[in-house]
Design goal:
The chain is of the alpha/beta class. It is 36% helix and 13% strand. Helix 5 runs parallel beside helix 6 and helix 6 packs parallel to helix 7.
Length: 275
């Protein structure tokens, strides 16, 4: 079965630029580049990946585009652009021939309440569909209500929620998240990545059984046509190995039909990101 990993990152580690990598995350306080990932993809029979931005700079997008040119297993990239900028249209035009660039992301999880309601931000997102771009929505569970208000205004834009909107799995918080993620799943243009869950749980003692209620919710809400697998490598390494996470997700879905499994592990990603 073909596998596309829809969510991973590359970086040349810089303590200032990557200050979100705190002292508890020493395992990832170093460079992570395609040469390292290539070995893991081969070991786990993963056909390719989508590389997602970490830094909020134009240089980050250029860095990822350059890597995609050098490594054919990078099937697409999700870059960064200032969606509120007055010259956004020109920037999108500038990237017209960058075939690896599939969409954009902003670190919304780090923004204050009300950020998603800014008219310029919304207008920027509304420009993306005409240029055939997608949007990765990175938020915490408490931001789902605001995200719902945002998505109401973006029915043309293919959106994917990263890391199932980061519920507080470590403390077993589920009810509010369940209600809000189910509400957001009602929009047919919204998809969800099954990624980043082990890092929201207890890093030492998490289990797939503990994640099951969250997985069940996402599958029920989005159906098998709007969910996709992602590793969140190398961030996942603080809690799990690449193969442990992949095998855990595969085991969860092993009773689903082969057509459903093919969709979840590759087909949905190919459609969403136009690979």
């Amino acid at each position: 079965m073909k596998i596309i990993d829809t969510h991973q990152h590359f970086w040349n580690y810089d303590p200032k630029r990557h200050d979100w990598i705190n002292e508890d995350m020493q395992a990832i306080q170093k460079d992570f580049l395609p040469e390292q990932l290539a070995i893991l993809l081969k070991e786990n029979q993963v056909a390719g990946c989508i590389s997602v931005q970490v830094d909020q700079t134009k240089e980050e997008t250029e860095f990822l585009l350059a890597l995609a040119k050098q490594h054919s297993f990078i099937k697409g990239i999700v870059g960064w652009v200032d969606l509120s900028a007055s010259d956004l249209e020109q920037t999108l035009e500038y990237y017209r021939d960058a075939q690896a660039l599939k969409g954009f992301r902003h670190i919304v999880q780090g923004e204050a309440a009300g950020f998603m309601m800014q008219p310029k931000f919304i207008q920027g997102l509304q420009k993306l569909p005409a240029h055939h771009y997608t949007y990765d929505l990175l938020i915490y569970a408490h931001q789902l209500k605001e995200a719902n208000e945002l998505i109401k205004q973006l029915n043309e834009l293919p959106i994917v929620i990263d890391h199932v909107a980061k519920p507080n799995i470590k403390n077993g918080e589920i009810e509010d998240w369940k209600k809000e993620i189910t509400a957001i799943a009602k929009y047919p243009n919204v998809h969800c990545k099954i990624s980043g869950m082990a890092t929201e749980a207890n890093w030492e003692s998490w289990s797939m059984a503990g994640l099951q209620p969250y997985l069940d919710t996402v599958v029920e809400a989005f159906g098998t046509e709007r969910i996709m697998f992602g590793s969140d490598w190398p961030v996942c390494l603080v809690a799990t190995s690449y193969s442990k996470w992949l095998k855990g997700v595969q085991n969860y879905f092993n009773t689903f039909s082969s057509a459903e499994q093919e969709a979840i592990f590759a087909g949905n990603a190919i459609k969403f990101y136009k690979l």
